[in-house]
Amino acid sequence: MFSLCFKLYYYFIVCCPGQLWENGWGKNKNKNLNHHHHKIACIHSNWDTTLSMAELMKGAQSTINSGFFSGLVIQWFRSFLLGHVQKVVVGDECSDPWALTCGVPQGFVLSPMLSNIYMKPLGEIIRGFGLGVHQYADDTQLYLSFKSEPVKAVKVLCECLEAVGGWMAANGLKLNPDKTEVLFLGDRGQAGVEDSLVLNRVTVPLKDQVHSLGVILDSQLSMEAQVNSVSRAAVYQLHLVRRLRPYLLADCLARVVHALVISRLDYCNALYLGLPLKVTRKLQLIQNAAARLVTGGGRRDHITPVLKDLHWLPVRFRAQFKVLVLTFKALNGLGPVYLKERLHPHRSARTLRSSAEGLLAVPSLREAKLQGTRQRAFSVVAPTLWNALPSDVKTINNYLTFRRQPCSGKFLRQPCSGKFLMYDILVFFGFYGSRPEWLGKPSQMGGVQITNYYYYYYYYY
């Protein structure tokens, strides 16, 4: 099984604000300011089409008229798209207000929503060729899986790209082949796929690494490039925070570390599940350094009590928790559809007591053949972790209640082994307390005497 991931890069055909600084300022500053207003608002003569706010409103009209929106929502859209002005300020000088005829404010929550509405026909065109597509705002990714006949697969993809280019040209968008990326997953030599993808009469080469929503994906899905990138960024932020430490209170320091360092470790950390220890160890060392920075511990101090006091879980356990949260959201209609499609209820040919426990089916080797990534695939990891939860936890419907269950981590299993995940947490944290019955006898845990226990969800989130 081979896969092609095609990431389109396009931009709106509007006047570039950078042209504002092309000419020098004359003696009449206000006249020059208004002149540059005109340069921003005008469209170059050799551009055939432009995406204006009125056209965006027209493109969204079919969705708005579907009956799902009230008059107040339509007014919200209209106020966002129309009636904006701009000024140019240079030093102490300010120009007169100039009405905007194109463009929308940046950074608003409504921007990606309206972009998805406007780009909805593009997804329908791509699916018409049998390709998968993921869209978010200006980020569009095409997916094509094939077992054999790579020439036919490449031909279908090129035809799809030609149709996409035609639709974009008719709707005020322009494809940029130079920034479009293609990733091939599989043995390129065995598949016989060469640099034969053509976009706007430009050959698009295959890349070993591509960026997808802030994550670096390589052709082997090893995630080493992503981990190295996150490690470099987190270490740099740790260095900056360490210089600010004398000026921050303890609680402020913890918040800064969470915002600048831990957030980088947690972003898309579900992809780190099942990675080799030599890869995830880099992230764990950064978390240890961040914990010592917050608590003021020394470099040689044992990290176990430090993480215990901060109520931080190790990196790989945080990743497993993230997978469970995504699974709960997907099963209860709170997550994306493409994740829910990977989860299927377990069906047995006979009536068993486990039939009412809400188990999920784990794909067989025929369905998930890639040995290198099978134990990391969401379709395999999510059912494995979910089935290990107690029955009363799996029947919870409220999201906050699910996250706050103190006993929901008892029977979590590692996706690559049959050991209790809870056992690993016990060894790591070493909490003191009475021996729970669910741990069983010492002989059932490899002959190790366990007298400590820890509630998985209690301290995380």
UniProtKB/TrEMBL annotation:
Pfam families: RVT_1. SUPFAM superfamilies: DNA/RNA polymerases. It comes from the Eukaryota. Residues 1-217 form the Reverse transcriptase domain. Signal peptide: none annotated. This is Reverse transcriptase domain-containing protein.
